[in-house]
Amino acid sequence: MAALVWVQRTASLRKPGSLLHSRSPALRFRCRFHVGKKSCSTELLHRSVVPSMHYQKSLPRLPIPKLEDSIRRYLAAHETSSPLLLTTTEKVAQDFLNGEGRQLHEELVLMDKNNKHTSYISAPWFDMYLSARDSLVLNFNPFMSFNPDPRQEYNDPLVRSTNMVCSAVRFMKTLRAGLLEPEVFHLNPAKSDTAKFKNFIRWVPSSLSWYGAYMVNAYPLDMSQYFRLFNSTRIPKQGRDELFTNEKGRHLLVLRKGNMYVFDVVDGDGNMVKPVEVQAHLKYIMSDPAPEAEFPLGVLTSENRDVWAGLREKLIAAGNAEDLQTLDSALFCLCLDEEIMKDHIHISHNMLHGDGCNRWYDKSFSIIMAKDGQAAINFEHAWGDGVAVLRFQNEVFKDTTERPLVHPGSTPAADSASAVRRLDFKLTGELKDGIRKAKQNFDSAVSKLTIDAMEFKKGGKEQLKKSKLSPDAVAQLAFQMGFLRQYGQTVATYESCSTAAFKHGRTETIRPATVHTKRCSQAFVQQPGAHSVEQLRGMLHECSKYHGQLTKEAAMGQGFDRHLFALRYLATSQGRPLHSLYTDPAYAAINHNVLSTSTLTSPAVNLGGFAPVVPDGFGVGYGVHDDWIGCNVSSYPARNVHEFLQCVHKSLEDIFSVLEGKPLS
User: Active-site residue among 21, 78, 186, 381?
Assistant: First the structure.
């Protein structure tokens, strides 16, 4: 499921190839308290002329597709199936369209009209995540690692941790003051991303502001998830978890060697604690001679959610309620690891799951800092879809590299012994047994995961654009070709796409495996000498054109996956028996996503990753850069990730050879 949230693209609002919930009073930001009395030069990231939530009220609503369109798209995604299976699926889908599906659709449309403050997918999507009982580790939480600071001396873990904490606090204060730049996708930045336009649009009423941006080809994005970034935690409950946010928390949670520490990073007046004091507190924790925790509580957050919910109740009964509230209300979590990262593969394993002991996976996000200054964000998925996290990561990287508040020569200054508190939980024998069991389960799960990476250096986005091909379409085609080369077939494939252009939008699915990619893959892999270079190029362009159409439709809320999911959710919530559409083997097959993919490029991000969503799948994180293409892929024992990446590399070589006019051998 992690791929659902991996970082998405607002595809229809950009040129091909470039990358990119519920109502709450927390969205009503209060400037006074959070700005405090100090000068804003060190308190805020910036002061946006346009208020952070200026566009939120007038964002367009996520459309519910026509049922006929969703069924047509659903059947189109099955065209790679055998004719016999496709005939059965067509009959079932037609029956759904003309009967129960029509009734469910009309009820969904009516519910949507009565809930104009949100989207039709928001509540069901929250419920899906929060009701899932699987461990958050590998199944949900993804990671994104930071690029190193370009100045090597600033990668010292104490210096970098301090600067990242301070920049994170600045981001929080800027957001809550309503002074964070709104998230806007600019198709013509020369007109819309200017001081002149911003000074104009700030005076347009928020109920109309989106239309003003639209007139200059700018598309504001939904920011309703941002308030969950800080002071937020997923609380385990029997059957269904809860999201908890308490903006009154002023402290940071720090983990080291499985031990937990807290100290305030915001004072009682709402001002950020002095950076040299933050540095002193972190140095104090890093120097603590305490051994590794014998019973690291954090590993419980990696357990099955019902098991963890039961153990949490036992923790409360043992007298730990106050300390648990301290964990839940912390601004965020900083994990100080003792390991030095050996390579990209080690980084991926450590930042995706680690050893389970020095993490609190339930926090909305954690910044992980290795002994050598390698840093990453691991985030819980239920509250949001990565858009807010990527914005946060980009801002923190920019701020720490351009305006660091402490330096290699800075002298820490504070009475840390009185400011830093180490949490000491009361553990019964039953709780200690629960921690041991959780660690065993964790070790067993992560031992099965393999991660490998590949860099294709013979071409990238620039060359593909010159050939008038979508870079994302070519990457997805390479995955189809690679799987066909390795296993002799094509399989269900998932690519996440953000619908943040709409109020309370979440994600939609792009289905990259199509009749076009199947035909092209077979031509390249199984019939390399049967087609001319011109014919192969023509197939590449067909794949690119159709993938571009699918991407645009998904970004505009016109896929079929979320619509059919919402109809199924509605039927289940009313206790109705499921229509045969949902019990048809074809529906199970297309939702058994052997290839789960998501793409990302950002100046702040080095690499990102997630685990497969099915036992016999691959988790494919990838980025198409100007002159190279990178993949970071995970698998379980049922698949060979090393061989898969070799096959993907070979596929890219063949594609670029054809683009250069060379025939396949």
Answer: 381
